[in-house]
Amino acid sequence: MSGNSIGNKFKLTTFGESHGAAIGGIIDGCPSNVVLDLDAVQLELDRRKPGQSKLVTQRKEADEVVFLSGIFEGKTLGTPIAFQINNTNSKSDDYDLLKDAFRPSHADFVYQQKYKHRDYRGGGRSSARETAARVVGGAIAKQIIKPVEIIAYVSSVGSISVNKKYTELNLSLTETNDVRCPDVEIAQKMEQLILETKKKGDTVGGVVTCVIKNVPIGLGEPVFDRLEANLAKAMLSINACKGFSFGSGFEGTKMFGSQHNDYFNEYGSTKTNFSGGIQGGISNGMDIYFDVAFKPVATLLQPQEMLTTNGTLEVIKGKGRHDACVLPRAVPIVEAMAALVIADFMV
Amino acid sequence: MSGNSIGNKFKLTTFGESHGAAIGGIIDGCPSNVVLDLDAVQLELDRRKPGQSKLVTQRKEADEVVFLSGIFEGKTLGTPIAFQINNTNSKSDDYDLLKDAFRPSHADFVYQQKYKHRDYRGGGRSSARETAARVVGGAIAKQIIKPVEIIAYVSSVGSISVNKKYTELNLSLTETNDVRCPDVEIAQKMEQLILETKKKGDTVGGVVTCVIKNVPIGLGEPVFDRLEANLAKAMLSINACKGFSFGSGFEGTKMFGSQHNDYFNEYGSTKTNFSGGIQGGISNGMDIYFDVAFKPVATLLQPQEMLTTNGTLEVIKGKGRHDACVLPRAVPIVEAMAALVIADFMV
Amino acid sequence: MSGNSIGNKFKLTTFGESHGAAIGGIIDGCPSNVVLDLDAVQLELDRRKPGQSKLVTQRKEADEVVFLSGIFEGKTLGTPIAFQINNTNSKSDDYDLLKDAFRPSHADFVYQQKYKHRDYRGGGRSSARETAARVVGGAIAKQIIKPVEIIAYVSSVGSISVNKKYTELNLSLTETNDVRCPDVEIAQKMEQLILETKKKGDTVGGVVTCVIKNVPIGLGEPVFDRLEANLAKAMLSINACKGFSFGSGFEGTKMFGSQHNDYFNEYGSTKTNFSGGIQGGISNGMDIYFDVAFKPVATLLQPQEMLTTNGTLEVIKGKGRHDACVLPRAVPIVEAMAALVIADFMV
Amino acid sequence: MSGNSIGNKFKLTTFGESHGAAIGGIIDGCPSNVVLDLDAVQLELDRRKPGQSKLVTQRKEADEVVFLSGIFEGKTLGTPIAFQINNTNSKSDDYDLLKDAFRPSHADFVYQQKYKHRDYRGGGRSSARETAARVVGGAIAKQIIKPVEIIAYVSSVGSISVNKKYTELNLSLTETNDVRCPDVEIAQKMEQLILETKKKGDTVGGVVTCVIKNVPIGLGEPVFDRLEANLAKAMLSINACKGFSFGSGFEGTKMFGSQHNDYFNEYGSTKTNFSGGIQGGISNGMDIYFDVAFKPVATLLQPQEMLTTNGTLEVIKGKGRHDACVLPRAVPIVEAMAALVIADFMV
C-alpha cells in the first residue's frame, strides 16, 4: 500500500515530483462513450494555477495538460485516461540550501526518515504541486457526474469570516474576486489581510466551504465507506488540511436532538438540513455541504530555524516564491476531490 | 463495493443487524504468533456496553464476544480471526410501529430508497450496535500496536466544554466517572446535563478528544492514504459523527505561519505540536491528537412527526430505550477506530 | 494482504481452521431484495460433504450451514451475509503425532516457516475443509447470476479419461453416479480405480471440466482482470489444483490460426468455439468451458518419511480418514468458484 | 473495477491504445533508495520489440521508454514511477477497412458491445502492444526481487516440442537463437515452422516454460492469494494465453500420491519437485516452474470472413504486419508478469 490512488470504481492514480520532468495521472474506470470537454478541464487547472492573481504564488508554471490515452474522436473509450503536465519551472537551485536542512512543519524530516532518500527540490512529491493532477481528475469527474453540481468558496481567512450560511449567499459571485469569496465586502477584507501577510513574508490559514447540489438519493455505503467518510478522507488528503465537518458540524454538537432532527416534508425532502444531505452514510437528496480547514502554509520568506542533517539547528532564510494564503487556490482542489468522491459512487 | 471492511493490511470486516441472530466480524491480516489477552478484549466491549451506568441506554445486551478461529493455544495463527456477539435483546416488537414509518434524521428513509428492503427492527445494520464489532477489532489492534497507546475522553457535552488542552489534564482520571471526562468538575456538570436531557426524552451531542502516544516515525502514506486522512475516514464512519480535526484544527486556521510552525529540537522532536504529530501525511513521532464531533442522537422519546411509506406525515412517539448522549459510549469506539488505523500502517 | 477474500464487488471472505470451533464466511456486496433459497445452499454443501458416498473420505461432519445476518423475511438486505458451519468432528488426537512432523507435499513445513505457529490438527487453515465456505458463497452466487448456469463434471481420474467434448455428453447424467462423470461407462472404470487406489492407502489425481452457459456478452475487464484470468486465479486457489486451461487450451497451441479462428455467424455468435466463450478477456456470449487439473491428495494411509521439527527424517504412518481421490468432491467446489467469479462481474 | 492494475503492494497500472499518442504506466509501491539500472529496463523492452528478428512482426516501433517520476539521482524515491513509450508507427490507415468490421477471434466485437465506442486502429487497448508497459514494470520488479532469478523459454511451437525438462537443458542458450529455445536443434525446426507459416500468411501457437530460482520460503498467502493463483492470473492476463500449469501440471493428474509426494531432505528441501516449488499456496524454497499456453495469433494475412457493423458477413484481406508466432516475443512478457507477481509478495 503506497496510497497514490483514490477511488475504487472511478480511480485516480497520480505521479510526479514538483521539480521532476512532469506530474500527471491515470484515471481508471471512466465510463465509455462520453463526450469530454477538454477545454473545461484546462479551465479548472487554470483556477489552481500559480500566478493567476496577485494573491497567489508568482511561480511560473504553464500548467498545460496533455492527454495520452483513453479518448478517441472526442469521446471516452472506457480505457485508462492518462494525462501529463510538464514541469516548466526548473529553478531548483532555489532549493540547494535546503538539501541538508529540514524546514519546520514540512514533510522534509519525515520523508528522510521514512524513505532514506528524497527529492529536496521544492518538496518533491510532498509539494502541493501534486494537487494539479487531482484537479484534472476532478474536472473529468465533474463532467461524468452531471447534473450534480459542486461549488466551493473561501468562507474564512485568518480571523475574517463570512457570517452567513451558504443558503444566504449568492454563490455565483465567488469567481468575481481573487479570494473566491461570494461575500464581496468580506472578500475585500480578506484580500487586504492576505496582501499584508504576504508583505511580512508570513502566511495565514482559513476555511473553504463546499456545497454539492442535485445529489441523487442513495450515494454512499452504510458502514465504513459512508459518503461523509470518503469526503473526509479526500479532504484530509489535501496538503495543509486540518479538519473537516459537514452539515451542522462542530456547532451541531451543542444542540439538542429535538432541535437538530430534520423533519420530513412529504415525498422525502426535509424541512431543515442539519444532516447536511447525508443520513446513515447515504445521500438523502438534500444539499451536501461541508467545511474544510487549512492551516497557514509552512513556507515563510522569513529567517527560520531549521534542523540540519548533521543534527544542528541553523537559521536559514527561505527564498523564491510562495503562497501567503492557499485558500483561493484550494477552492478548485476541494471541488475536485469532492467530484472524485461522488464519481466513485456514481459510475 | 459495499464497504463493510476497513483497512488494507490489518482488515476488519463486520456483519450483523441489531435484531438479527448475531453481529461480529473477521480480522484478516493479524500477525501470527502473538499472545492475545482475550479478557482485555471483553473489557473494551464492556466499556461500550449498554446498561453500564445510569447515563447510557438501559437496553439489556450481554455483549459477550466468542472467538471462532485464528487463535490456537492462546496465540494468533496469522489466519482470519472470526468473532461473534449474539444478540440477546430480541424485544423487536418495540419497533413494530416503525415498520411503515421513517424516523427523522435516521437512515430508515435512505435505506428503503437504496435497498428496497430493510430490517426495520432497531435500524438493522444502521444501528450503532454494529460498532460493537469495531470495538472487538480495535481491542485486538491495540494489542498488536503496542507500545503505541490510545486514550480518548469526552471533552464536551452540549455547551459544557473542558477548557484545557490534553497536556494539562490528568488523563488517568477519565475512567473514574461515568461521563469519561478527565476534568472531574466539568464531568459533574456534563453528567447533570445528560440526566436532565434524558428526563425530557431529549438527546444532546458533544466532542470526543483522542490522543495517541509513543507513535513511531513514518506511519502514513504521503498522498491519498495520509495518516490524518485515514483517521478522518475512520472517525466519520462512526454513527452520528459530524466532524474531525487534528492538531491545531479549525482554530489553527486563524493563525499565522510564523506562529503555527513547529520548530525542531535537535534530533527531530518539535518544541510545539500544532501539527498534531503528523507532517506531510506521515507521523513525526510527536503525540497525535484529534477531536471528533458527535451530533445529538436522533432517537427521541418524544412524539415526533415521521414520514410513512404511504407518503403521509404522522406524529409517533418513540418507545424503548435510548442514549440521551452517546459521548460516554463513543469513547471506546473512537479508540478502537484509531487503533485499527494505526495497526493498518504498522503490521 | 492476507488473501482470505475473493472478489471486488461480490466479495467472499472465509475463516476457520479444520479443527477449530467453526468455519464460515462473510459475503459483502450481495444485491438487496433477492429471495434466497437456503435449502439449495445446503444441497450444494451436501455435494461437497465428507461421507456422501463410498468414494470419499468417511470423516463425519454434519456440515450444516447457519446464516447469521444479511437475510430478513427470506430476502437479502444488501448487507453482509455471515454464515457458519460448526466443526463437529473433533477427533484431533489423530493428529497428535503430526505435532512435530511435516508431512510430504503438505503445507505443514511452509506454514511453520512463515507463521512460526500453526494449528497442526488436520492442517488447520490449509485443510481443504476451508472450501466448504466457498461452496456456501458459490451457492448464493449461483442464485444471483441466474439464468447463467454452471455445470462441472469429472473428465479424468488418473489415466482414465472421457474422450468426448462436453458438447457430445449428456451432462444431466453427471449426478447419477458417485464419481460425477456424465459418461457412465467411463464413470464405472473411474470408480473402480478410485476404490482400488483407496484399498492401497494411496491416492490419485484427475481433471474437472466446467461449462458455463447463458453468459451475457461483456463480462470481464480487458487487461489484468480478464474473465479467464479471474477464473484461472479462482481455480488455482483450490487446494491440490495444478493447472487451468480454457477453450482450445494446451491442445490449441498446436493449431494454425486459420484452423483456430472462430468465424462469426450473423448477429455475433460464432461457428466454432475454440475461444471458449472469451475474446480479449471479455465474454462473447458463447459457452465458456475450461479444465482444472488436480494432483493426487498428499495424505496417504501408508507409512511415509516425514521431516520432524528436530530436523530428522522419520517414517510415520498416517491415521484417520482421507479422500483417495478428490475429484468427485471437487466438482461442486469448481462450480462455486466459477459462480463467485461470474457474480463479481455481474453485480 | 476496470482492471488496469496488477498487484497490491507493488502495483503496476498501465494505459494506452496501440495507435494513440503513447502507452505507459505507473508503478506504485516500489521501495525507496534502490539504485535502478535503466539500461537494463530498455534491454528487456528490446527483447519484446517488433522487428528484432526475421521471425517477428516487422512493424516499426522505436519502443524507447522515458521515465517521468519516482527516480532522483539514480535511485528510487519510493514515490510512483511513471513511464511512457511513444507510439511512433502511426500508419493507422491500414486499419481503415476494419472500422466497420469485426475480425474473427479478436476483441473487436466484444469491445463494441461493451463500450459502444472503440479505437479500431490496430485493436486499440486490446492490442498486445499494451504488454510493452508490463515489460517495463517487470524489468523494474526483476531488479527489486534480486537474487530471485526468472528465466523463460519457448518449449513448443505448434507440434514441435522440447522433450526435456528444464533441469536437463542449458538455459543460457535461450537467447542464442531467435526463437528463444535453449534446445538449439529443436530451435532450428521451430524457426523453420514459423517461417513457413509466415509465408502462408498463417500463424501458429506454442508454449512458454518459465523457471524461478532462488525463491525465499514463505511467498504467497494460503487461501485465495496463493502464489500459484496469482501467477495463473498474471499469465492468463496476457493476450492469446489459453492455459497455465505448474509443477507436475496436467500430467501430474495421472500419478498416484505415492509417486507424486515430494519427500524431504533434512533441513527442508525436497528430493523431487512435483510440487513446483509451492505447497499450500506458499513457496517452499525449491524452483518454481510452470507452462503457459498461447494460441495462434488471430490476425492472418489471408482473406477472412468478418462480421460487419451492418450485420453482414464479408470476406476481407488483412493488411500490414503481424507475428506469425508470438512465442519468441512472449518470453520477456512471461518473465515480466512473473516478476510482478513475485515482487508483490516480496516488497
From TrEMBL, chains A, B, C, D:
<comment type="subunit">
    <text>Homotetramer.</text>
</comment>
<keyword id="KW-0285">Flavoprotein</keyword>
<dbReference type="InterPro" id="IPR000453">
    <property type="entry name" value="Chorismate_synth"/>
</dbReference>
<keyword id="KW-0057">Aromatic amino acid biosynthesis</keyword>
<keyword id="KW-0274">FAD</keyword>
<dbReference type="InterPro" id="IPR035904">
    <property type="entry name" value="Chorismate_synth_AroC_sf"/>
</dbReference>
<comment type="similarity">
    <text>Belongs to the chorismate synthase family.</text>
</comment>
<dbReference type="GO" id="GO:0009423">
    <property type="term" value="P:chorismate biosynthetic process"/>
</dbReference>
<dbReference type="GO" id="GO:0009073">
    <property type="term" value="P:aromatic amino acid family biosynthetic process"/>
</dbReference>
<dbReference type="InterPro" id="IPR020541">
    <property type="entry name" value="Chorismate_synthase_CS"/>
</dbReference>
<protein>
    <recommendedName>
        <fullName>Chorismate synthase</fullName>
        <ecNumber>4.2.3.5</ecNumber>
    </recommendedName>
</protein>
<feature type="binding site">
    <location>
        <begin position="125"/>
        <end position="127"/>
    </location>
    <ligand>
        <name>FMN</name>
    </ligand>
</feature>
<keyword id="KW-0028">Amino-acid biosynthesis</keyword>
<feature type="binding site">
    <location>
        <begin position="239"/>
        <end position="240"/>
    </location>
    <ligand>
        <name>FMN</name>
    </ligand>
</feature>
<keyword id="KW-0456">Lyase</keyword>
<comment type="function">
    <text>This reaction introduces a second double bond into the aromatic ring system.</text>
</comment>
<dbReference type="GO" id="GO:0005829">
    <property type="term" value="C:cytosol"/>
</dbReference>
<dbReference type="GO" id="GO:0004107">
    <property type="term" value="F:chorismate synthase activity"/>
</dbReference>
<dbReference type="GO" id="GO:0010181">
    <property type="term" value="F:FMN binding"/>
</dbReference>
<feature type="binding site">
    <location>
        <position position="280"/>
    </location>
    <ligand>
        <name>FMN</name>
    </ligand>
</feature>
<comment type="pathway">
    <text>Metabolic intermediate biosynthesis; chorismate biosynthesis; chorismate from D-erythrose 4-phosphate and phosphoenolpyruvate: step 7/7.</text>
</comment>
<feature type="binding site">
    <location>
        <position position="321"/>
    </location>
    <ligand>
        <name>FMN</name>
    </ligand>
</feature>
<feature type="binding site">
    <location>
        <position position="54"/>
    </location>
    <ligand>
        <name>NADP(+)</name>
    </ligand>
</feature>
<dbReference type="GO" id="GO:0008652">
    <property type="term" value="P:amino acid biosynthetic process"/>
</dbReference>
<keyword id="KW-0521">NADP</keyword>
<dbReference type="Pfam" id="PF01264">
    <property type="entry name" value="Chorismate_synt"/>
</dbReference>
<feature type="binding site">
    <location>
        <begin position="295"/>
        <end position="299"/>
    </location>
    <ligand>
        <name>FMN</name>
    </ligand>
</feature>
<keyword id="KW-0288">FMN</keyword>
<feature type="binding site">
    <location>
        <position position="48"/>
    </location>
    <ligand>
        <name>NADP(+)</name>
    </ligand>
</feature>
